[in-house]
Amino acid sequence: MAAMRVSLAEAGLVKKPSHSASTRVRVSVRLRPYMSRDDEGKEGLCVRGTGNQSLEILNWRNTMETMSYQFDAFYGENSSQQEVYTGSVKPVLSHLLTGQNTSVFAYGPTGAGKTHTMLGGAQEPGVIPRAVRDVFQMVREESVLPASQDWEYSVSMSYLEIYNEKVLDLLEPQDQDLPIREDKDKNILIPGLTQRAIGSFSEFESHFLPASQNRTMASTKLNTRSSRSHTVLLIRVVKSQRVLPFRQLTGKLYLIDLADSEDNRRTGNQGIRLKESGAINSSLFVLSKVVDSLNQGLARVPYRDSKLTRLLQDSLGGSAHSVMITNIAPEQKYYFDTLTALNFAAKSKQVINKPFTRETLQTAALKRQREEPAPNGYALKKIAKESHDSSAEISDVSPTACSPPVSMFDPSVMVRLLTLEKMMKGTPEKERLNLLRTVQESRQEIKELQLKQKELEEQALAAQSLLAETCKAAAAAPSIPTPLHRENQHAKPLRQRAIVASQQVCPVQPLSSSIMTCKAEKRKMKVSESDVLENEESLETRLDSAVLQRSRDRILNLLNTGSLKELKGLQKIGDKKAKLIIGWREINGAFTQVEDLGNIEGISAKLLTSFLKVNILTAITH
Ligand SMILES: Nc1ncnc2c1ncn2[C@@H]1O[C@H](COP(=O)(O)OP(=O)(O)OP(=O)(O)O)[C@@H](O)[C@H]1O
């Protein structure tokens, strides 16, 4: 049964069920060739392949016996980089485009070929260059499919090493130990880690090659270029929907070259090398404990006991599709290292991971959509030229940050829909149908609101131009009162400081001030409550009922669709009341009239009256 995580997080994060089943860590073993003809001639074989998935090694207790091991794949000393890559790595890459994580790591004793397998050379590129090339290829291929026309893709990279238990950024080297954090969804984050957008393989190389020079390497007796650190290359593929509901799938590929475990007597390590070796060995010891705890089903898995295991948390017993390539050497001097590596590999293949799709909603896209509709067609767009892991992992814009008052993309409505959609998952068929109906109704409601908004805007525009013309006419012929002026000749004039700078109200003022007001720009003037109360009895009679109705409609619209921020923009409504309004409409649906506000507990009749007066007048002035 597929592993599922479905939750609607506060930051607009939505996880959707994945269709991939629990999966075992795939373990391959690669035997490197002898490095010297002399050794090959002198020594008898201590380890050899017996099939595509099996090998045997001499039993040191009884050299007449061999011990057999079975893995997902075995690559002999003549195997090519291409074989290892296509056999063990390529098959798991496709998960990236479904928003799932993939992890490939090389393990084994020093000089056994980990870096050769992961990195390779110009003639024989290893897993890293091949995988990155294929990621771009996969993105290109998927993006031209008809089903992908509403999606855009971006690829980015981060690169780090763990050296002496410190996490160091290789793209922007600083002597700063970066923290490793875990969010509530168990995603491992490294705040402050550089993330670079890459649009092509050559762009990847332009960052990766110089950064690789920053790796901590040293010469040991056994390997002249020995990796003294664990390195982690992270390739992030983000697939973003350009239309509603703006889903975003993020797949992460971890390519990890582990430093080797060492016997310091054989490596001749001293001083700083000895310290490095101690850090490497202890992290690999914790790695072994992690695998043991997972296999025994222990409640506490000691991921936190080393930086390496913290970082591999997702790869071992976590949500990634993981491949471990164990590198071994044929020489007899490596015998016990080989045996240790094989035993670790054998227990690692029992570790079960539970991959799931990581899906978010791009609230930033909601915002952008309002400003300019996205064009159709494929674009491998770069994400922000440089950003940091923390911001990339967590949705950065809260739903309430979106501004316009009425839109079918209003985030609170989106959240409502998503809540409903979320409820639908895991609900019996019959109830699901009901919920589906509700979702459809909500969508319809949003459409209607949008149409209504358009209509209101058109009406407001028409009224404005009509009134502007009226004002102009009044200015040109001062002896002819405007119709509204005529009707209200008896009305008490508004006090000068209560004059509202709007074309809608200019007819009710003495002509001189009308002209002045008509000339005034559309400045936002807050109307104080005392002004309103003072002119209370004349207000209704002075204002055109259509104008009044329009401003009521505006407030009603705002009450029904406004975000927290927009509601707080209303006079008399603070944070608490704005939340009460949102809560009320979530439960009871739309307000049918502004007076419905009085149904909310905490909004008294008195408050309602002054709310209406102040806000109606304010709405008129806008
Ligand atoms: N399959 C292979 N075919 C040919 N040469 C290989 C192979 N594997 C490793 N080598 C060579 O063996 C040497 C040691 O390999 P490598 O540096 O990759 O080991 P390592 O496990 O990464 O060592 P360390 O952990 O000390 O960095 C290198 O010169 C490498 O080119």
TrEMBL record:
Major localisation: cytoplasm
Domain Kinesin motor: 24-351
Residues that coordinate or bind ATP: 108-115
Matches recorded under Pfam families: HHH_3 (PF12836), Kinesin (PF00225)
InterPro entries: Kinesin-like_fam, Kinesin_motor_dom, Kinesin_motor_dom_sf, P-loop_NTPase, RuvA_2-like
Coiled coil (UniProt feature): 432-469
Location in the cell: Cytoplasm, Cytoskeleton; Nucleus
GO BP: any one term: mitotic spindle organization
Top-level taxon of the source organism: Eukaryota
Cellular component annotations (GO), alphabetically ordered: microtubule; microtubule associated complex; nucleus
Any one GO molecular-function label of the UniProt entry: ATP binding
Keyword tags: ATP-binding, Coiled coil, Cytoplasm, Cytoskeleton, DNA-binding, Microtubule, Motor protein, Nucleotide-binding, Nucleus, Ubl conjugation
Stored SUPFAM superfamilies: P-loop containing nucleoside triphosphate hydrolases, RuvA domain 2-like
Similarity comment: Belongs to the TRAFAC class myosin-kinesin ATPase superfamily. Kinesin family.
UniProt name for this protein: Kinesin-like protein KIF22
Organism of this sequence: Acipenser oxyrinchus oxyrinchus
Taxonomic lineage: Eukaryota, Metazoa, Chordata, Craniata, Vertebrata
